[in-house]
Fold:
Amino acid sequence: MKIGVSQCLLGVHCTYNGKSHPVDVMIKMNQDHLIVPVCPEVLGGLTIPRDPAEIQSVNPLKVETCFHQDVTEEYVKGAQRALEIFQENHIEVALLKFRSPSCGCDGVYDGTFQHKLIHGQGVFAKMCHECGIQLFHENQIEEFLKYIGKEDDYGTYFKDSTSI
Structure:
């Protein structure tokens, strides 16, 4: 079984501020060739680093940077390309970056750039969910490992990890 993952969770410096959010268990799974990594924002043509962006409205979808630049097109394009990669690899489950306007699957920022979380999904996470891909975020490692039946194989990495 191949697993989809937000590329920043593998230690790749692709977040808006040029940083990463490595998760030890995902890095180990990647070494075992179980991972299909994507960064929808980069796939959409956004640079590293880039201005922070948040979803301003869902219907119609509008994503803007903190300087009011509309980046909706880049987010949609990147999400579509990342979803194609997941589908080409028959991804059924993914671990995505919490709070991201692309990958957030259990909460995103409210669009005010005040770090206020609301219930919702990022652009890519919503597309994945609509295609039946089971989603988890990096604060749900234990549940994720149980879901994929790998808690015995990788559980020690979770227990020893200080990256989350």
Observations:
- Residues 158-164 have pLDDT under 50 and may be disordered.
- The beta strands are 3-6, 35-38, 53-58, 61-65, 93-96, 108-109, 117-118, 134-137.
